[in-house]
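COURSE: Structural Biology Practicum
ASSIGNMENT: Worksheet 4, Part C
STUDENT ID: 0417
INSTRUCTIONS: Below are two proteins. For each, the amino acid sequence is given first, followed by its structure token string. Answer the questions at the end about the second protein only.

PROTEIN I
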Amino acid sequence: MPLAEAGPKEKQKTQRDEISHDMERYLSTIANNPFHMLTEYDRMIEEHDNSHNRTKGNALRRSSG
């Protein structure tokens, strides 16, 4: 009887593994302006997108880990 092939185990995808559009925009802002305080990033994004605010920024930061 042949042995079962030992292949890489598939990792189950979780919601945390996926990057939302909001998180992508937030990370892009940080990458382009690396030396600001967290609340400054929220203000920068809010200037371009009125649906973003500090509460949403806090939620994004909590969801990322």
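PROTEIN II
(use this one for the questions)
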Amino acid sequence: MGFGKGNSVGKQFKKGESGNPNGRPRRLALVIEDIPQDAQVKIFRILHTAIKIGSTDEAVKYLKAEAATLGEYGMVLQVAIRALNGNNGWQALCDILDRLFGKPRQATDVTISGSQSNRPVIRIMSRNEGGD
């Protein structure tokens, strides 16, 4: 069944046209990059202080109070509060930690050695596996 006049499945758009003329909303990570550097430092300092607080209720109160003082950039902290209290709170915390401290490096050792049949043997292991 195609897209007809009374079809409620969807609307067929002309070539080069879409249903949302403004396009897809920007990701939060890209929005943060557009924020001036001094505001980014303030936001990261507040998030760092919040993750050091002992209880989640106190951390939420702290973030809400600080969001009011940041003015137009307070919405970043409100998004962080919603994400931390949501179903994927652990992932949100990991994202904040990655943003604050950077992602850990994952090193890999590659060992190539020849055998009797002249076919190379390739052995790949991570640094925490140990080895030669």
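ANSWER KEY EXCERPT:
Q1: The chain has a mean pLDDT of 75.
Q2: The two ends are 63 Å apart (CA to CA).
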